[in-house]
Design a protein that fits this description.
This protein has helices at 60-63, 92-97, 166-174, 215-218, 485-491, 499-508, 514-535, 538-555, and strands at residues 18-27, 40-47, 52-59, 102-106, 128-130, 135-137, 151-154, 181-184, 187-194, 225-226, 234-240, 248-257, 292-300, 305-309, 314-315, 346-347, 352-353, 355-363, 372-377, 383-389, 402-409, 422-423, 436-442, 449-457, 467-472. By secondary structure, the protein is of the alpha+beta class. The N and C termini lie far apart (60 Å).
Length: 559
Amino acid sequence: MAAGVIVTLLTPPAFGNVCHVVDVDFTTADDGASNHFPPQVVVWIEDAAGNYIDTLYITQKTGTYGIGNRPGRMDFKSGPLFPYGRREETFPIWSHRHGVDFPRVVFRYYTPEPCNSNTDCANQQLHTCDLGNHECASSVDSELSHSQSVSSLEYHFCRPLMPTEPKWNTAIDAGSCATSAYSDKGEFSPSLVSHYPPRSDLQHASEDSADSMTYETLNPFDAVSQATSPAGQATQVIWPLPNNLPDGDYVIFVETSKEFDFNTTYNATSYPPPILSSYNEYGAAARGQPSVLYSVPFSVKLAESSAVAASYAGYGDPDGLDGSVRPPDATIDETPGTGAGRLQLVSDGAATYRVRVAVNAENDSAPPGAPLQARAGGVDSNHAEVSFAEAGDDGTIGTVRGYEIRYRADDEITDANFASSSPINTVIHPQAPGTLQDFALDGLLPLTHYSVGIRAYDDCHNIGPMTVLDFTTADRKTGAVDACFIATAAYGSLMANEVNPLRKFRDQVLRHTALGELAVESYYTFGPAFAGAISESELLRATARDALAPLIRFVKTFE
């Protein structure tokens, strides 16, 4: 079976020509849904006494893009690449076992107040105590609307989408936004903490808080963060045994979670999203079945060994409030792609499993060579075709174990920042040295410089030299601009406070008269061209804001 994503955290120890590695194998399952949201997965190791040792693998939405610790309510609606909402229910068991606390990231203009009861919340805007987080609930924390003064260009998440928008399905299929978006990157709470790391992919902008410059340095899990493998494609996690790890008994844990994983117990009725003061049409209720845990006890010794798990060990708290493991029960489904069936049941001829752990000895001390002839072809405003010639396992001979490929936008990739750069969700099946390999990069931003790093590794995870490829995307195609148009381009976000009155005036006033409908259609015809130019220039954005200010004051009289 071909391996999908292969990652490691540690450099293998020096055992002469032999290294010992732990291989963890699993395959995500297809749920058969047309709007497929892939599961999130984390893998970690503990000793037999339950002492946490290390995290081996984590999917990048949590490990790199920080969905567990970002501004916004934890029960917000969701959607493709939704930008806000603390997803503390993603890996509650892992998050309570790794033993690291991080400052809570909150909206820039929201300063939460700790509380134990409603009487602790004196401020009129902070009127209800959220006993789960022990903080006063705030109307600000419940909003998707953000001023352009605290919103900067977004390189990963999309603007919030309505399920009825065509872009909803487009974003799911592409896995990224086709047009520019802006978001509030938040700041640290002065008093509250999180068990999840903040995102580590930010390129700091003048609108961002100074705190955001430290997000990357606080995230210890980005080095093992990888994109989720496509359903049906095996993932193999390789962990070289450190020198100081004694022989003995250990446990590999694999925790999985998934948005929109509904059943009769866990669904949008039993776990409803909040009713916001505005923007309720954006996103969809996403909280369903909780995280599911698999555990595989195994032994580390001189002889090679293996162990498997076919059934789940239990599930996590649906609200992410504690790290307890609930025992298996009838509330969790095991159909393919859902609940305990998020990992596929696989047979290798000797065993049937959802997770397999093997301890192997590998004889491989020489590092691989460098990939050659890296090129980018077919580059347009949001797409590129990358190709390279394969490296050799020992310099120029033999077949390598795999490749690590990452990229950075508007910044040069180097050995120093490779681990914190964005991983590319592609699978390379290694062949003989010199074989030409290619893969596609989609969802890129127009007129943006990209730097791609490619490096090979062998059976002992010796890393070869990195090959760097640089290219710049083309200008935006005519008409290829988001439907938020001029006001959104001016204020940086469809969710900006200044844009909402214009939306309401359009829907509640203009849409109800023939002349108004004609004005709306004319705007939709000519608006994109103006918006495309405005969004790429801060000077034009500022000019447009000045021009729109009198109109906004006028339409507010209709609210």
